[in-house]
Amino acid sequence: MGKVEESIQIEASPEEIWAVIMDPNRLGDWVTAHKKVDDAPAGELAVGDEFRQKLRVVGPSFKVRWKVIEVDEPSVAVWEGKGPGGTKADVRYELSAENGGTRFDYCNNFELPGGPLAGVGSKIVGSPATKQARASLKNLKKLLEG
User: Where are the beta strands (DSSP E) in 11-143?
Assistant: First the structure.
């Protein structure tokens, strides 16, 4: 299993950030690995909402089916994802007011198929995934701070 954890301070309220990060149709505005979204509901997501996302972290693009499993607006969102070949991910967003802005903590636990070889694959994918998460959070910061 692989894990990516990143945090960033953004000079915007949790509500302002929430409006962007919980709208799947805005993923292209800030997520670097994002290529396309399908079947997404309009506006902010709620528990039980699902959509498909096409991503590219390393190698060829792939599709993930996301389901929102927890929401505590505007503080916490948790998603479960299922991708090709038995890949799985769970992503957690945590927003907390801090120093006049907001701290955004991002965590992605992912599982690649392949039994014992999955650990090796997780290490290979982990570094690019960390770089993409870091770049995505910087994009979000730039988008919200102008």
Answer: 34-38, 50-55, 62-72, 76-82, 88-98, 101-111
Q: How many residues does the chain have?
A: 146
- Provide the whole-model pTM: 0.87
Mind listing the pLDDT tens digit for each residue in 41-56? Answer: 998 999 999 999 999 8
Of 35, 34, 33, 39, which Cα lies nearest the Cα of 51? Answer: 39
And the tokens for 64?
A: 């993930």
Quick one: tokens of 91? 């992503």
Q: Identify the structural domains of the chain with CATH numbers, from first to last.
A: 2-145 (3.30.530.20)
Chain-centroid distance of CA 119 in Å reads: 21
Q: Give strand pairing partners of 96.
A: 103
